Amino acid sequence: MVYTSHSLEETRELAQRFVSYLSQHPEYHFFGLSGDLGAGKTAFTQAVAAELGITEHITSPTFIIQKRYAIAKEGFPFKTLIHIDAYRLESMKELEAIGFGRELEDKEALILLEWPEKVEGMLTKDAIIMRHAFVSPEVRTIEFPDMMAI
Amino acid sequence: MNIVLLDSHALIHRAYHALPDFATSAGEPTGAIYGLSATLLKIIGDFHPDYIIACYDRPEKTHRHDSYTDYKGTRVKLDDALITQLETSKEIFKALNIPLYEKAGFEADDMLGTIVEQLADNKDAHVIIASGDMDTLQLVHGTKVKVFTLKKGIKDTVVYDEHGVKERFGFGPELIPDYKGLRGDPSDNIPGIKGIGEKTATTLITTFGSIEEIYKALKKDKEAFKKVGITDRIIGLLEEGEEDAQFSKMLATIRRDAPITFELPEKTFKDGVKMENVEALFKRFEFRTLSMKFRETIEHKPGTKIAKVAKPAKKVGSLSYEEEHLVTLEKSEENNSGEEDDVPLPKEIGLLVSVVDSSVADPTARDLREVSGETDQDAAVKVLKERIKKEGLQQICDIEMGLIPVIDKMEKRGVKIDIKHLNELSKTYHKTLEGLEKKIYEYAGAEFNINSPKQLGEVLFDKLNLTAKGMKKTAGGARSTKESELLKLKDSHPIINLILEYRELAKLLSTYIDSIPKLVDEHDRLHTRFLQVGAATGRMSSLNPNLQNIPIKTELGRAIRDAFIPEMGMAFASFDYSQFELRIAAFLSGDENLINIFKEGHDVHSAVSSQVFGVPLSEVTSDMRRKAKVINFGILYGMGVNALRANLGSTKEEAQTFLDDYFKTYATLAEYLEQVKSFAKEYGYTTTFLGRRRYFPDIKSKLPFMRASAERMAINAPIQGTLADLTKVAMIKVDEYVKREKLEDKVHLLIQVHDELDYEIDEGVKDTVIPKIKEIMESVLTLQETRGVPIVVNAEAGESWGQTEEVM
Questions:
Q1: CATH number at residue B162
Q2: Which residues of A touch B401 (CB under 8 A)?
Q3: What ipTM, to 2 d.p.?
């Protein structure tokens, strides 16, 4: 299902629905955000973080690889948001080095990983891939797998 | 609704002792009034109160004196100047439409307590009590009643809510009278139980509760007391002192039932203030700046407008003597002098400015306006964010934003200082300084003030007649005694070296050894301030003190660093990037010869010697290596043939030949440096590996030496800047690692200076953590990005910053 956003407010709205959906489906905890530079992956992550009550500034962790944030939202099934940028990773070994395997096992961690293509071998069966695309300076699309009815 | 209650006595008292003896030209003392007004200003600005109420003590004896004639018996009689100002202060409150509450037989604290009690039913009321001491903390309740108290002087303040009180004492506000009941309060001459101090009192209260509960428990089961470490002796003291404890608790308890009726004034504070009255009063006291600041603060609507420069730039001469004095005091305490223009911005916004223009180190509202070209804060932020996107600065911006919490933690944590050690150093080195002084006087044939450039000039140039070629003069026409000038005279007289030594020693003593003990907090921790973009290259810098200037190679530098110690149970670990600038130069330029040296793991100076002088590695002499070292570092700073010659101590031809051979060997590096220079000349800026820009306006200057200087800085900027960027990335990554492994109370980042990161690490985990930090720092870039040049970090650990030894 492809959703189109014409503004940051609409992206925020979409993030809201995404977060509500997650509240009801805590079994989905690992999301790959696929898309070119400027397609809106980080913007979507920022909107989701805002929904989750995270006040810290979310930035693209290209050089840092991974950043975690504590989720303050009451009653939300996840306690930590883990934002990963796999763009610079040359191998899965590097992902393992930062403890990714353990994080996958943490059922209370919500993982948003940009550039999942770079680490295909690490994608478990329950990883859900969202595709982001740039349509025009104001417009972006986000595609979720059909089974997710947001 | 915010209601501020003032403990007027405490505030005026503090102000009186914190400030110098200001007085009007007619001789009326105003120091305490000034301090009170400044504190009021801060309170209004920080809390935006709807109402302000002032509570006073009365001269009559209080109910506490009735029970205990010696109450507050240890208090010294007040100075006349203070007494006068206590009375005058009431005029300030009157002009500001602040009602006064006082009652004979009761203290100001009881007024505060009663008002708090009478406001308890008012759901909207949020009370902040401004007080100078800890007595009022017992009135704190949840987040609805807080206490704002002054720590040192009048600038350092802390706000306590219930949580804050619990954190500080280990128990809640309601138990503070009980605490005083046991421990007593020497300043009020409340006895408590003699022999029971802070620690014991705290243990008793946190274990058993109030005094009543403690005694109940004591009568039931003494064993419970022994179990928490209360000795038999203390148990005896407790048993004997029951009456004293209860009595002291009564003295220490603030009354909430004084016979006054508290009523909120009809008008809110801001609405009720008559600025003309305030201004007239301040005119009488000769407080010119305060008058303006009050008007601004009271009429200012809290919002996001950046102040426009409505007032003309203030000339120093227009301030009264007192205000000038205070402004200097304030400036030296690292606080803005009050013009809204100079107010530092919140970090996130300030960094936007520094990312766009790296020459702005600690951005103020004025900088925000100037760099963005906008007067409204929101518009300015938008403009800067656009520029950041357009100019490829997003990466750098993300890194700086991500660094903010890391720096906050660093500043908050501070670093522990061995004060005793510094005091010993002070004794020793002040003696050395005296010795130097004596010798200098001997040579000069007289005593003089070595620190006075005028007197020094007279001694050197007139008395001793020392001259050298090309001595410069100061702006006033006198001969300069700057270090660079004295160095020219080095060989002409032994006094020169002594003077240089003297100055260096005096500087270290005043900047570090004597000043650090004054800067530490109550746990002996020094909280240096770190500026994220402290240098135009992108490097961080530190203030109060500037840790960068602690000498690296000298014994004294080491001794000073010995005073920086880890917390107990922790080790001091130092991680230093090895030859990072050269490595960065290698991969930025892509010079194969240089890259290979690093790939093969050779000592770079020896290897460069080998390549440039054409001899096998085994035949490189230490002299050759030294020469290569000079040029290796110099080249990155755009060092030319003259500087090289001076550094090598060779002839100009030798230096030139060396330089030519060097650039022949590293032709790609030479080309790269030239490209950087040309780009800077054409576009006016340079970029680092991650995109940070540095601008060089002087590169188009008409003055050749300005141009040359800018060119040299431009050559170095991408290398230094990349180093700074990568160090920051490492800091964030290590922080993430620490959070991920839940080691936040075992690993703390303390210092970032030069190319190193310093941590204190719990002994129990250091063997796993140290290699991991080293690994993280070494992997900030992939080998592909560094074209195969390995990034190497030296890890050292030990008992202090000065005593670390290589671990790996």
A1: 3.40.50.1010
A2: 57, 59
A3: 0.79
